[in-house]
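Minutes, project check-in
Item: structure for the 585-residue chain
Input as provided by the requester:
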Amino acid sequence: MSQSSPKLQLKNPLLFLFQKSQTLLQVLQIHAQLITTNLICDAFAASRLLDTIVSKIHNVNYAELVFAQIHQPNYFICNTIVKCYTKSSTPERALRFYAEMRRKGLLGDNYTYPFVLKACGAMCGLLEGKLVQAEATKRGFGSDVFVVNGLISMYCRCGEPGYARVAFDGFSEKDLVSWNSMLAGYVGCEEMEKAQNLFDEMPERDVVSWSIMIDGYGKKMGDVKRARAFFDGMPTKDVVSRNSMIDGYAKVGEVEAAREIFDKMLQKNVISWSIMIDGYVRHGDSKEALNLFRQMLCQGIKPDRVSVVGAVSACSQLGALDQGRWIHLYMKRNSLLLDIVVQTALVDMYMKCGSLDEACRIFNSMPERNVVTWSVMIVGLGMNGYGKEALECFARMEKERIQMDDLIFLGILMACSHANLVTEGLRIFNQMRDAYRLEPKLEHYGCLVDLLGRAGQLDEAQNIIQSMPMKPNAALWGSLLLACRIHRNVYLAEILVKRLAELKADDSGVYVLMSNIYADVGMWEGVIKIRKLVKERKMKKETGRSVIEVDCNVEEFISGERSHIIREEIELVIWSLAKMSILAA
């Protein structure tokens, strides 16, 4: 590969286009021009292409293909590939590539080691990180500021802030990044007292320092009052600090407070939009999440993975299949990254919207799958009544020797519960403990109780709860109470309501359910007693809501609401339907 000339570096229009390129199609077009003009043989041109693919397109496979065509890669090119693997979902590949570099005589420089250390932190590879540190020190980079800062971050990511502090204290040429790395390490390990002390000791602070503290108190600790005090005390605020405060509010469910800051922002980046969309989805306002996603697109903001997954998840919650398909098509047309996280969200959306063919098509075309992907597929099949197919999917995992974890067993137990496969569910529950040596958690016992309850085996379900190694929670008793209604077991239902009352989890929903159980068996005195109790305690029944999708628009109807824009037309249709049913009777 030829060396670069200054003229090529400074004046070639093709290389200048890399700065403006944003999509995969644009990069492919520039790549094609580099090939036809033979500039691809120039080391600088190849390095610019590779850096653009890694930094803007985030396409590991494409980066590997380009790298394979470079006959004599330099340090910059190798470091770019290490960075590419470090940012991917498989950071261990960065270590393997680094080992291959060493075998070929490319030992790395002071920019290589920070990337490799970052990969060690991402995979919690403490031993590997120590080996990299030893080699960096041996080669004279032990006191390099980039290497030391990478070392501090690596130790903190591996849950060892003590080792990080030793490296921090032993380094005499700390810069602001060193302080911020140590500060972020304490916050990441939820050692906020030490983070506060370090923050107070800092000789200088920037917006990043303040934002780290806001993240710590807001996102990590849920103390949004303390986080807001830091936010209000900042000398200057930028997009990053505002995003941190929005994220803090969103994490604890104070979405209105988050939206207030968001709406006042003069400049918003894609992270600002993503945090708000994700916040609405997490706290049940999927309709507003989709509205915000559309606003973002209208303002020309290119969505990232978080915003796309948020929008797809909103479609899952609403059952908005047409909108979900449109978002999927938008991603394809705009060459957005369809990685394992996005594809798993799409499988989940199609499953929850009842489109099994599309879900299976994506699942089968995925180049890699993780335990979440398999779990989503198994639960989706069970939820849609395909219990046997869910079991076949589980058997396929066993045959392919895919690593099982408690999430997979939670998924298959949920599938058995939905499909009423009691024998298979009990077998898998026992298999989890005996064959895979995985101790069932509260959620697994909850699935087992739900499975037995749906099948009418209420005594067995109660025995499971009483023999559990952990204390049952309200959700477990509530699941059994729901089964009591299905099978009209008044005696057990009354006991369960008392248990829920002891846990102070007897909200209006519990008493409404108990009232319905009484009504189902004709015990009207019980119904009157429950209604009187609810009235005396001034309990408010949760407002009934329903959502439908019409012509790619989501319409929400709220019980008792009189302000709908077409209320009169809706009431006329309801009256007409009621009249038709009376005449038919």
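Outcome recorded: Residues 250 and 346 are 24 Å apart (CA to CA).
No further action items on this chain.
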